[in-house]
Specification:
Two copies of one chain form a homodimer. With 436 residues, the first copy, chain A, is an alpha/beta fold. The first copy, chain A, has 17 helices and twelve strands.
Amino acid sequence: MTELICAVEAVDVRFPTSRELDGSDAMNPEPDYSAAYVTLRTSTGGAGHGLAFTVGRGNDVQVAAIKALAPLVVGLPVREVLADPGGFSRRLTDDSQLRWLGPHKGVVHMAAAAVVNAVWDLYAKREGKPVWRLLVELSPERLVDLVDFRYLQDALTRDEALGILRRAEPGRAERTRLLLERGYPAYTTTPGWLGYDDDKLVRLSKEAVADGFRQIKLKVGADPDEDLRRMRLAREAVGPDVRIAVDANQAWGVGQAIDRMRALAPFDPYWIEEPTSPDDVLGHAAIRRAIHPVKVATGEHVHNQVMFKQFLQAGALDVLQLDASRTAGVTENVAVLLLAAKFGVPVCPHAGGVGLCEMVQHLAMFDFVAVSGSTEGREIEYIDHLHEHFADPVRVRDGHYLAPTAPGLGAELLPDIVAAHRYPQGRVWSSQEPAA
Amino acid sequence: MTELICAVEAVDVRFPTSRELDGSDAMNPEPDYSAAYVTLRTSTGGAGHGLAFTVGRGNDVQVAAIKALAPLVVGLPVREVLADPGGFSRRLTDDSQLRWLGPHKGVVHMAAAAVVNAVWDLYAKREGKPVWRLLVELSPERLVDLVDFRYLQDALTRDEALGILRRAEPGRAERTRLLLERGYPAYTTTPGWLGYDDDKLVRLSKEAVADGFRQIKLKVGADPDEDLRRMRLAREAVGPDVRIAVDANQAWGVGQAIDRMRALAPFDPYWIEEPTSPDDVLGHAAIRRAIHPVKVATGEHVHNQVMFKQFLQAGALDVLQLDASRTAGVTENVAVLLLAAKFGVPVCPHAGGVGLCEMVQHLAMFDFVAVSGSTEGREIEYIDHLHEHFADPVRVRDGHYLAPTAPGLGAELLPDIVAAHRYPQGRVWSSQEPAA
């Protein structure tokens, strides 16, 4: 019997993070970190897990979008899907009727991401490898087959992509060894949420340094005097040698971003993240020119590879922050990593949320071993929330992510957690007791 | 008793257009033109109608997104909403949790459009005016209050927007008279669907000219030899003096678009519409430079004002094709019209679909009377499908849209039509008989 994909289940899972203001920033004052959680099942009992991260209201819409993709997936032979994950991704993102709802953006694209990532999880579990290692061990030709070059050719051709991967082949074994030995550098956003008071900000900043982090991140973008005061406190807490990135979460216009960053300059910010609308490629380029040498970082809301292509073409960012489920999952992120390598821009994935750390570490590690070949100027974001809910949580030691060794992508939630946080009927929501 | 908004109803309405290949193009081979149809009800029995247009699968997701907005709307006093439609729009587009699903793009943004347009319909009916006239009679200050300048200031300030509107004040009465007398120029896409055979293409092209249209549009982007052959047939059918626009519906990459348009050049195409990804501002700019004097047109999938701002800043288009429900409805479209006027780019709205002609005519007419002050290089798309299903269908005579005089925005469907086309339980779908 041919093994088929027999179900695509999507569950609305929400964590009541707004009760503690974890995750609070200029645009997200009270998020409830949530996941439209996908379980893809096969006719022989196999399963793969993926998710789309949201911040609360609307997670039900995200679930509805995943369910709308299910008819395109159920009934496909597993062997064919795993033999051509690029073709599978395009089947979801280029459906002639569903693509009208994007195209390649927003709810439908994040739905594709969740399903695509569930396929990668299944694939890696089948191969008995973590996804980073599965990707590292694919041939350059198979990796390039993942990429949809239709809209990329003016910036990256198939031959150029192959060239990037082939040039990285020689040192792969050595870099794999280094990765397993030392892990991958991380920075932490844990201290910097806008809803935390000064004492908590200072205490957590000092703890971050003590824990081995060389970079922290602070949320800015609400009251400008508050930004200055908090930046000063953080700088005093960590000293001159630890980098402080700031993150405005899209709060500013272009001119305003420039003014605000000039005001913060005395405290030596390392990068400004999401200074303005994530759609504003030209705006980011103008900000970058004006605030140099402070870096410009963005990506968590950059919705597809065509947008990343333009950010790179326009010289609009110094740091590319790919996201696990904003673009169409592992498959499209391979294209984004290749684009970044072509333009020589470091990738520092966006993480936090629900399961983002667990997923993006695979992409950064694959990048180090098989694409850019470097961790120079590269770090994965780390936030110490919600990891305990996952079957294979990230392990961060001395400011580094340890390379995962368990098979899969890492997005699998513990069944009890799913049951308790299911919205609105789960125990956490129906009883209004604090999250576990 | 204060009048409140008491319900936001959303219904999945689909028309089985794929049975006749109406609407078939390079990216949409078999669309079922659909609407997530909104009825906003007030506590005193008032109602406003809006819709988000989709092409079939996923219309249920669009409905779910509108329902997710309802809690932000139900219970608001009608008087407050109509006094500040700009604030109302921002309430929908900037909800701190829902905006994660965009931001300002895709399903959630189209949902906002449908609800915002229902409010404009209610407002205009309350005032006893068609929306175009309601807008024309608002003061420049009130119009500018509609605009969210947060991300626009580097291209258009409030003062500049006021200046544009004030400069257009002197001739408004005369232009209103002209509009009522002659209507607004239209072009027709009816002949050019990809699924039509040669005879139908030629016959409909000749009919279009006989009906007074000075421009037709042809779908291209599938087989290049077919494109050439159909373009030649159309040119022969309409003669040298009728403009032929071509529309690739995003089928090409940047270099490919340039090559294909050079091949079509001998047949004198007027504009190329959607040559590549609608997100690719820089790609459109490159195409435009390469194929001059053929014009570049886009907009039906340009998802918000930040994207339009960049298309204008980068000199990436000659013709801006705003859409009634892709950006956040009438409110955001006022901003788009002001941006276009600032940059001196003509607006030729996208129409067709379900109710798009009915809605966008108001925006073009408002533009003529009160913003750009001109119809030079400006036409509204016209497609002769599905109008009979509306309470106040468009009237097109001798290649012109006649100015609507009935109060409202025009998106109100006949109740019988809604019942029959409701998906999947309506008569048209449950019995699989052809559409009315």
